[in-house]
Predict the structure of MYO1B protein.
Amino acid sequence: QDNSFEQFIINYCNEKLQQIFIELTLKEEQEEYIREGIEWTHIEYFNNAVICDLIENNQTGILAMLDEECLRPGTVTDDTFLEKLNQVCATHQHFESRLSKCSRFLNDTSLPHSCFRIQHYAGKVMYQVEGFVDKNNDLLYRDLSQAMWKANHSLIKALFPEGNPAKINLKRPPTAGSQFKASVATLMKNLQTKNPNYIRCIKPNDKKAAHIFNEALVCHQIRYLGLLENVRVRRAGYAFRQPYEPCLERYKMLCKQTWPHWRGPARAGVEVLFNELGIPEEEFSFGRSKIFIRNPRTLFKLEDLRKQRLEDLATLIEKIYRGWKCRTRFLLMKKCQIVIASWYRRYA
C-alpha cells in the first residue's frame, strides 16, 4: 500500500524488462515479416516506451529531476521535488498528482497531496514522495571508499575500486537513482546481445493456497503482462522460421531431387522439397531469405519424416556394409581354395 523510492526504482526496472520483452517478441516479430516480404496485418499493442521515457529522460525524466533537486543549493525537500514534478510532468498522460493542472483526479481525495501516481504498464501505482530526496542522496563519499580500499582484506578492497588513489574522481559521487539507472542500462545492453526465453508466472490467488482460482486476478495479470497481444501475434504469424541454406541441409534427404546434393539456389531446393512432400501451401511462406512455417505440426511432421529417413539410411548403410564384408570374405575364401587346389594338383 505504501510505495516509496525503493518500489519506484523496482517498478522502473520492471518497465525496462517489459520494454525489451515487447521489442523482442512483438515489435521485432512483426518487423521481420515486413522485412522478409511476408503478407501481414499489423497487430496493435501497447508500447511502454513512453513510461520509460517519463522516468529516465535525461532532461524531463523523474530521475533526472530528482538528481537536480539533490544537487540544487538551498533548501531542498520532498515537497519541492513534488512541485517540480507537477510543473514538468503536468501534461504527461501517465503522470497524475493532486496538484497537477491537467490531472483528471483533482477531486480524488484518495490521492493525498504528498503523493503522485504513475500509470505503469501493469496498472496505476501511487508513490509517497516522502524520503525520495534523502534516499536518492544516500551516497558513499570518497573518503569512505578510500578507507575501505586501503583494507588488507582482498575482498573488501575489490568491492571498492573507486577508492583507488590512481582513479580519484573529483566529481560528486553518483546518486542512488543514477547508479540504478546505469545498472539497468547495462542489464538491457547485455540482454539485447542474447536470445532470451521468457517464462511468465501467473499467480492464481493472493492467499498462496492450493485449489483456489481467482479469475479476475488471473485476467488482470494476463492483460498487464502483454500475453494477449503476444498470443495474437503468434497465432496470426508463423511458429518457425529458418534461412533456406540450413533448412535445405537438414531436410534434403527427404526428396530424391535434392539428395544427396542440390546444385541450384537454396530457395529453389526448398521449393522442390516442399512440393515433393505435398505440404499445403497455406502452411508455409517464402520470404526473401527465410522459409516461414505456420503451424508446429508441420515442423513436427518434417522432423518425423527426417527421423524415419535417417533410420532407413542407417539400415541401407548397414546392409551395404554387410554385403561388402560377406563378399570380401567369400572372395578371400575362393582365392584360398584355388591356391590350395593348385598346390594339391601339383603334388598329386
